[in-house]
Structures are given as structure tokens and as C-alpha cells.
Amino acid sequence: MEESLWKQERVPGDVELAICRAGGGPDPVVCLHGITAQHRAFNAAARYLGPSRGLIGVDLRGRGDSDKPDSGYGLKAHAADVVRVLDHLGLESAVLAGHSMGAFVALKSALLFPERVRALVLLDGGWPRVEKSTSEELTEEEKQEAAALEEGLARAFQRLDMTFESPEAYLDFWFPDQNLKMEDLTPELADYYLYDLGEVEGGYNPKASRAAAEEDSPSVSESSPTAEEMRGVTCPVALVRASQGFFPGSDPLISDETRDVMAGSLDIRIEIRLEGANHYTMLWPEYTQIWAPRVFDPPFWAS
User: Fold this and answer.
1) Residues 30-49: tens digit of each pLDDT
2) CATH classification at residue 274
3) Rounded to whole angstroms, how far apart are CA atoms 123 and 240?
4) CB 3.0 to 4.6 Å from 225: which of 166, 219, 229, 241, for a disulfide?
């Protein structure tokens, strides 16, 4: 990626945050990434939307180049950080786009600070928490969904303790038996994987903090809003979901049934299902150029 695509700055505070700007629009979309990712997950969006709208990519605390305290994570902490970012940028309110865990952070921000959130773009995340009493059992579908989520997170978490001898070895983890080099990837994807790594003794280690991921994971599952609590979100919503889950051929993380529940609680103005995309590839250029224009040109929240 050319150096000019993102320009980094710091948000001061007890936990300093790294944020990056793409484009120079006065009303940028604030982008929130997944549980072990960082803002370069939105490289393709920056490519397609940055010149016209402007984007702010946030490295959530514990990820990317943001500070990584030993504790102090969870959805409320991240939502408060979103407000810090808006204050730093001088924005009274903004559109929040969140992928995966970032969608849950966006929802929590809209619930806790409704006057600061103009609209939400939920990218394969933000489904309602299902409350069960101790005497209630999960349905077979709920068991399968929980197992798929656990499997996907386990793979993402696994790499956090690993040291890779080279960036190419890191690609081997994500794309086994393909012997890929960075130059084999699109510029957007190569840049994502390079930024994801920090140099350590013996090679490279993912920047995301395991402590952050391990504290955030139960926060999402235990404190994200239920369908009833979602009714408190007053801003318009765009829902973009992949047709597959974490892995090719797997069931989607947001099923049609879950989509219907969300539609009964949120003001969903536009809903897009990306055929052929999975939870990760939906942010790649080939799919971003499908959903981004439909969401932002014209802005869905203005309809």
C-alpha cells in the first residue's frame, strides 16, 4: 500500500490509542475492527471510500500500535474509547462501521452514547445475545453456532503466542500449503498482514495482546445487548453479512433467523448478504466494492 493511504496519529490518555486517517473528508466514518485484528482490516474500504468520504481506522486498545495494558478491556471500555476518538477529532457525532467484535463495540457505543452515533454499519457482527436460564438448554442450532464461533476464535487466538521467522511464515499459518509471498497478495491484504506483525527476538509476533482478547471475548458473549436491549439503539443501521462463517463452506455467523430477530429490534435501512464471502474475505477488495457503494453512495442513513 502506498504510504499516503493511512496517516497515523495518537489519541492521548491513560491508554493511548493509535488511529489512522484515510482521505480528508470533514465527516469521516469511524472503523472498528475485530477481536485480534487492527485498523488495516479496512484497507479496501479506505481505498474505495477514503477519497470521497474519509475514514478513521482505530486500533482498539490492546491491538495494533495502541497501548496494551494488562487489563481494563471489555465493550464499555472500548465504547468509551470511541468517544475519546470523536472528542480528539472534534466530531460531535459520527457513523461507526464495525466488523466482527467491532460491530459489538459500535452497538455498545450507540446504546451508551446515543447522541454521538449517527448511524451504524454492522459487518458480520452485532447479533443479539440470547439469555438462557440455568434450566434452559441450547437448541441444536444454537449449539452449532456456538461451536463454530469457538472454533474460529480458537484459530485466531492460537497465533497470538506464536513467533514466526518471517512474514511469509505468517502467511503459511493463514494460507497453509500455498507457499505464498507478500507479492502474491493484493496490496491491501499484504499491508494488513505486515502491519499485523511486530518484530521480536527470533522473528515476528502478532501485535494483538492475548490478555486483551481473553478479556474481551467473555465481555462480548456476556454483556452484548439482547434483542430487547437493542431496541434502545435509536440510529439507523446497515447490516452486511457474509454467506459463510470463519471458514469456506461453513454456516454464516448471522443466519436468516438471526437477521430477522435483529430486524425486529433495529432500524435496519439496508441489508446485504455477500454470496461467496466468508467472515474475513468480506473485507477484501472484491467484496468491499460490492457493499461499500450500496451503503455509502448515497448514504443509507439519509434515506
Assistant:
1) 999 999 999 999 999 999 99
2) 3.40.50.1820
3) 5
4) 229
